[in-house]
Amino acid sequence: MVVVRDRERTLGEILATRGDFVGAGTAVDWQEAMRRAIRRGDQLLRRLGLAGSGDGEVGGLTAAERDFPTFVPLEFLGRMRPGDPDDPLLLQVVPRAIETEPQPGFVGDPVGDTAARISPGLLQKYEGRALVIATGVCGVHCRYCFRRQYDYHDTFSESTSANGSHSSPGGTIDEAAMVRRLRQDRSIDEVILSGGDPLTLGDPRLDRLLAAIESVPHVRRLRVHSRMPIVIPQRVTESLIQRLQVSRLATWMVVHCNHAQEIDAAVTTALARMVDAGIPVLNQAVLLAGVNDSAAALESLCRELVDRRVQPYYLHQLDRISGAAHFEVPVSRGLELIEQLRGRLPGYAVPVYVSEVAGAASKLPN
């Protein structure tokens, strides 16, 4: 068991000095990283020396995981501080009993995904843009995920996903049906790949999906929204970079990083690969209680991002998904934090603080 005096060091740093680290520094491909990920909350806590800590949460893990399974890559685990129940990375992924308690105003589809469906797996909320639910599989299960209750079975055939969850089918969208629908609306000039996480698709499957989108003449831009470059950075392979470079579409990558501690050497390398290849990289973060709801935490995150040539893009107010109420930060506090950031950072390093409201014509600035 890791002792508390190591709390200021991450698990990866500790195990690396002992020669038994199997995290980001290990030469495994991204698919193997998916297979070896942690799938139980109690296992996650034991790896951090927290099992039996008496925090009152362990007894509720099973019920929370029935609604939304645990899935944590060892690469992400390796950046957590052992012995620290308040580690900002751990808090994002550890299931808690409070998730099963109903909270007023927190619902199953807070952003109106269902109403925005224009065909299976294809959503349109905003003028000129369509969003593809490319897969139901993610590289990590964030407990605040606004699609944790999304019905992927309406989009994909029943199958077991790469992360072993039947609630997130491993199938992918019908490209022919998607192309037909996109061709019907010539106002759509940008397609957003989302999910799940589109970069959990293997290269051949991803290539077919990109080729289908590229076949629609009036689509000019592709935006890929992915947490994989952060949680499993080895997914940013040379073959992926080359495929994005040869696309006729102007391609933008939007990653999701909430805390500076998520950025290690492997993530830095992955981000640099994309930027050096001419792919602009933006970051979206979610304002989360206990994780990044301080000016110091947000300032550190933004500085780490811009030092790596990644622009802080959005800071999202929490989407009010059932099970995530304990993450909510009042908008008034968010506004205070943004104001403090403006006094500490150059303008390009300050994200836009937004909320997504079901039925609205755009993200709404707070």
What key attributes describe this structure?
13 helices; 10-stranded mixed beta sheet; alpha/beta; TIM Barrel; 366 residues; single chain; 30% helix; disordered N terminus
Helix amount: 25-40%
What is the CATH superfamily classification of the largest domain?
A: Aldolase class I
Helical stretch count?
Answer: 13
CATH architectural label of the largest domain? Alpha-Beta Barrel
In the CATH scheme, the class of the largest domain would be Alpha Beta
The secondary-structure class comes to alpha/beta
CATH topology of the largest domain: TIM Barrel
Q: What's the number of domains?
A: 2
Write the layout of secondary structure elements.
Blueprint: H1 11-18, H2 30-35, H3 41-47, H4 61-67, H5 74-77, H6 88-93, E1 117-119, E2 122-123, E3 129-133, H7 175-183, E4 190-194, H8 203-214, E5 221-226, H9 228-231, H10 238-246, E6 250-256, H11 265-276, E7 281-286, H12 295-307, E8 311-316, H13 331-344, E9 352-355, E10 364-365
Parallel strand pairs: 3-4, 4-5, 5-6, 6-7, 7-8, 8-9
Antiparallel strand pairs: 1-2, 2-3, 9-10
Helix pairs in contact: 7-8
